Records
---
Amino acid sequence: MTYLEGRAGVPKGAGLEVGVLVGDAVQVSTVTTSLADVASSDAALRAFLHGLPGVDRVGADQRAAMLGTRSIKTTAKAQAIDLAISMVDLTTLEGADTAGKVRAMCAKAVRPGGEAPSVAAVCVYPDLVAVAAEALTGTGIKIASVATAFPSGRSSLDVKVAETAQAVASGADEIDMVIDRGAFLSGHYLKVYEEIVAVKAACGPAHLKVILETGELSTYDNVRRASWLAMLAGADFIKTSTGKVSPAATPPVTMIMLEAVRDFRAATGRQVGVKPAGGIRTTKDAIKNLVLVNETAGDDWLSPEWFRLGASSLLNDLLMQREKLTTGRYAGPDHFTLD
């Protein structure tokens, strides 16, 4: 299958092979719909997205559950904890957020505790980006900001683009946008595609993370379709959730998105990151996600450049487990600052 012939370095006639989980085995299916004019109309986009192989829900649930039983001990666990800390997007997205709270969170992001590494990014609302940018100057930690009428996405495209541009002008390195789930579920795929393209353009040098809000997409097939739609439109990352809707970052959903980025790179040569967010609260949760990455997409994604964990309370649990491995004793929950 061709991928927008002449773009992304993919030659004419290139085939797209998509891994399909059947029981415990992965079968390879070739999608034959041409993508030369995939975004020319709703009909063309629908033909491609609905031509993707369906997801075996039982198989996906079973494989994700099986991978969740992997046990990581001692030195490997210590390395996994530090890697997970380095992947955290430390987040506060509350109506009661203040400049003081953001500054305190930024200080923790730089020095989480002991010899632990810094986190990957701090994620805040657009009006607090400038505060975070000032606090994190010279640290190398990214400033991420939600935009596009987060978390509902219910606003005009002009407003979404303006909010994105404002956040980038204030110092955001990354924009986390939400798709219009109503449009997606109504089959208006081209509208969703064009909004992502417009927001990506407004990002300028900033990276774009596209939030699918998988808890509202109803089916695993829709998760796969939304993942491909976002990547075709230019997403640098695909993200599970806003954290405001349940269920959020479930292991099967994260696995399906990891399969999508793996297959997308095989087809186009372009690597896209994945960010599960919402409901990831414990070290065990974080390590399960690292296993999913390694076993599904491969170790090319095992870095903060390509995999993030969106969380607020997770960091303290990682620090507590790190302290236990280092000293042999559990630190109390009040040993670390509360976020």
Note: The mean pLDDT is 89.
---
Amino acid sequence: MKKIGFLSFGHWTPSPSSQTRSASDALLQSIELAVAVEELGADGAYFRVHHFASQLSAPFPLLAAIGARTSRIEIGTGVIDMRYENPLYMAEDSGVADVISGGRLQLGISRGSPEQVIDGFRYFGHEPAEGSDHAAMAREHTRVFLEVIEGKGFARPNPQPMFPNPPGLLRIEPHSPGLSDRIWWGAGSRKTAEWAAEQGMNLMSSTLLTEDTGVPFHQLQAEQIQRFRDAWKAAGHGREPRVSVSRSIFPIVTDLDRAYFGSQTGSKDQVGHLDTGAARFGRTYAGEPDQLVKELAADEAIAAADTLLLTVPNQLGVDYNAHLMESVLRHVAPELGWR
């Protein structure tokens, strides 16, 4: 059994072929898609976060709105770039969204990915400490964030406050118990997955790994997951971790499906280069449901994960993306034992 949700990048463009031609379209349709997939029986609505782009950026107003419109699904991010974040303000924002949703927030965070501008975090007022770099700054922001959402007091109270204070040091409010167990690190390599386990964060792994060992993507990702679980066990944490992977899966059950994705049947892994060196990109799964079942049954990383996030082409609109989710839930998931 697996939790199955969607992951949206929230693109918008004024192109006549796009169903999301403005930021308003992208945001409001994100809410409507979350409501639709909850009604279909899916388990989660997740959103990518990008800055300086015609894509979803500040996630917490959106997550809070979805939390108020839904009652069951998990709502989350995949991922928030921690280089841009004020960790204390983020703790307040996440506490608010989690309280509104009744404890359904699942926050994917990371050190970030290639971005639209050079060192965009500097425009947000964040500078790496002397002798440090942007990756270390992201991890330091993460450390502070994880510490303050635990709910312990750390701020010295004003002796003459406007309103009476409880005794002792003050904490970030609102505090949402259990949120610290629902933080995920978006790991692009085996090493960063091990680091995430040591910190006590769940693992979120996408369709891109920033390394390549020559084996198929799903096998490299399965090794990443196993290393994460080994490191988690060695760290002695008191709970079982969660692992999510994302995939592009398009069952072809209508002529429209075939028109959109028929050319992607037979897709293969791709190897390319990012700033960090060689990278391996996972394939797209597109085809008739019976063929998809055979191909997905051989995906070792999906088998190892408890949560599957389906990347959706949000510019095709709410109705079509709800159709895609329903096709996976109805024609593929039961045959693979995911439902």
Note: Residues 188 and 209 are 5 Å apart (CA to CA).
---
Amino acid sequence: MATDFKSIPIIDISALLAKCDDPKMAEDPGVSDVVRQLDQACREAGFFYVKGHGIPDSLLKEVKSVAHKFFDLPYEEKIKIKMTAEAGFRGYQRVGENITKGIPDMHEAIDCYREVKEGMYGSLGKTMEGYNQWPCNPQNFKELMDVYIRLCTDLSRKIMRGISLALTGSPEEFEGGRAGDAFWVMRIIGYPVVPTADGPGPTNDIGCGAHTDYGLLTLVNQDDDITALQVRNLSGEWISAPPISGTFVCNIGDMLKIYSNGLYDSTLHRVINKSPRYRVCVAYFYETNFDTAVEPLETCIQRSGRAKKFERAVYGEHLVSKVRTNFG
């Protein structure tokens, strides 16, 4: 469970990445130090920055740059990839269409998911069946995002090996039937300077309302010069997560909270853009296998010293429920 943290730790994960596919990685002192820091961050805040992650800073900046270019386009151009249920809830949402706890969020976004082919997960996956809708302008948008998603997927898998070591002593707990065929979600989000909506509708000053994430691990790539992300500590204080160039802000999600039997918590966070400039954030979500039934790990039940705290939850059912609720 989160503590009364006042800041979010920064973790250099380069030692973990260097040994991540070594069968003896757990014996390496550098890996052990990173694992200790990950464990502490997940227990105390549920949030941490990572540096030394190996993804070029130039790519992090380029991804945000093309997102800015897309959101600068006229509404008539952006709506060409409008999100619909028929498209598997993939595509563009205008300001105010995303809903958090019944309140419209003051952001616009492109939502994309790992491809789900017809019949891939039977009735469980029917809602999410579809292909991502990518804009034709900027011209390199799809190609760039394909590279970025591939790198974020690989990085997330490696960070999860460290977290697995911290929780269970084995680096492979979140592979195979749990996350060996990991689902992913990505939201490319734009936060206007002044709350507005295209056409009539309610507005407020909350770019994204207080929420927790659904899956295992989130990588947040935010504009370098605007502080807008806030994380709530145990006392209810909102702690800013200012951008640190070249890093990702990471946080753990609901499925990891369940696996850990509450040793780790998925911490509430929100976004309020008080800057006089438009803000972009690209959030990549690394999840379990879509059809995985998630429940507390026996190791974590023993370590927590309490009975099983959570009932089993099928990730795909959890995601579909959230999608239908949020995307009004």
Note: Residues 10-326 form a domain with the Jelly Rolls fold (CATH 2.60.120.330).
